[in-house]
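TA notes, week 10

Several of you asked for a full example with nothing omitted. So below is the full record: structure tokens for the whole chain, then the designed sequence directly under it. When grading your own attempts, check the secondary structure regions first.
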């Protein structure tokens, strides 16, 4: 008894002296270890998304390989579904209810502060916008900016944040339902994925033109809306559910990981191939998203499997870029717009590799400032007022 009490005091003392130092880097990892594989995927996701958006402003790569960078958003979705789904499912594995107040408090402190800072810039400094037109402010406030959205508007890349907000508003309620009706654990994800395929097929048919699916209709009714983009989020949650509730299945997945890497990449390549051509086909509009989601889910399994080096090897800089990825996503178009204006003013060629490298560095520099000034203080606050639940 005395030895246990002494050990407890030593642990508390060590925690009190080390936690502030660990909080100084990234408060999300004050009480858990980073996973190099997930850091690498998150870093890759933001890198390719920035490359994709930079190309819209003239920073194009040879062969236009930058046109595939939009799939980084789907990678973010799979990662988010896996991580947030795992957090929600963890108490259910111990027979405890989901603490909705804690969950929503943690999500609010994670997302809202930095998001509203950038939203204020767009709202009150219109001359800074990358495009003059912008969706109504109320849509951004209530995370509905992805509904009825079309490209060529300011802060349009925030559509993916609306998808996640809407999904995580409903996910706890869905998981509570599933926990009380065991049969639903298989029915619900299948309904969402199959329903998404059917809905995309209907919408593609509704927006058919002589040359294929209308691009404007595809953007507004298939690419941006939540109800057609749930595949990667659902696959991420399913992986988290397997890990939490089916440990034997999860061990098999981990052992199969070396055999999933090439098929996962092949799925991504085939899905992107579907979208190639002069016109957008109905097949691409229907099948691209679930195929990409499945490929990304396979890559996630490879990233966390102990049988592959992705889980063990720390790529220099990946953890840092992963930490500031959310801030980088928020500021990217503002920064790209300013760098493009600077390059045009000073007659710098936008298509050079150096110009694109400058864009990436500038995005991460501004993102670091936003992370340190806004995001990190609120993450520290979250760590104090709504800490992650203990595993006991």
């Amino acid at each position: 008894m005395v030895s246990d009490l002494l050990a407890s005091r030593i642990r508390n003392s060590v925690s009190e002296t080390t936690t502030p130092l660990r909080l100084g880097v990234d408060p999300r990892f004050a009480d858990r270890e980073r996973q190099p594989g997930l850091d690498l995927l998150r870093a890759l996701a933001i890198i390719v998304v920035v490359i994709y958006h930079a190309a819209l402003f003239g920073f194009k790569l040879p062969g236009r390989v930058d046109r595939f960078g939009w799939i980084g958003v789907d990678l973010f979705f799979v990662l988010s579904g896996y991580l947030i789904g795992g957090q929600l499912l963890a108490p259910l594995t111990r027979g405890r209810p989901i603490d909705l107040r804690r969950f929503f408090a943690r999500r609010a402190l994670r997302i809202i502060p930095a998001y509203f800072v950038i939203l204020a810039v767009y709202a009150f400094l219109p001359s800074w916008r990358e495009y003059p037109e912008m969706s109504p402010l109320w849509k951004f406030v209530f995370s509905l900016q992805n509904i009825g959205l079309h490209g060529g508007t300011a802060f349009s890349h925030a559509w993916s944040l609306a998808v996640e907000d809407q999904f995580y508003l409903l996910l706890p309620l869905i998981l509570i339902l599933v926990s009380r009706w065991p049969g639903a654990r298989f029915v619900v994800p299948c309904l969402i994925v199959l329903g998404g395929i059917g809905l995309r097929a209907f919408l593609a048919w509704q927006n058919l033109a002589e040359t294929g699916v209308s691009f404007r209709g595809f953007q507004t009714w298939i690419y941006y809306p939540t109800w057609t983009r749930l595949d990667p989020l659902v696959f991420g949650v399913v992986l988290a559910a397997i890990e939490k509730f089916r440990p034997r299945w999860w061990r098999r997945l981990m052992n199969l990981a070396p055999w999933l890497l090439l098929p996962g990449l092949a799925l991504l390549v085939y899905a992107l191939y579907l979208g190639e051509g002069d016109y957008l086909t109905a097949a691409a509009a229907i099948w691209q998203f679930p195929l990409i989601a499945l490929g990304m889910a396979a890559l996630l399994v490879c990233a966390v499997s102990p049988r592959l080096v992705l889980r063990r090897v720390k790529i220099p800089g990946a953890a840092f870029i992963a930490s500031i990825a959310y801030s980088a996503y928020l500021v990217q178009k503002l920064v790209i717009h300013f760098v493009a204006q600077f390059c045009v003013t000073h007659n710098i060629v936008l298509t050079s590799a150096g110009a694109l490298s400058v864009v990436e560095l500038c995005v991460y520099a501004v993102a670091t400032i936003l992370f340190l000034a806004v995001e990190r203080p609120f993450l520290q606050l979250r760590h104090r007022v709504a800490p992650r639940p203990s595993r006991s």
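The first helix runs from residue 2 to 23. Use that as a sanity check on your answer.
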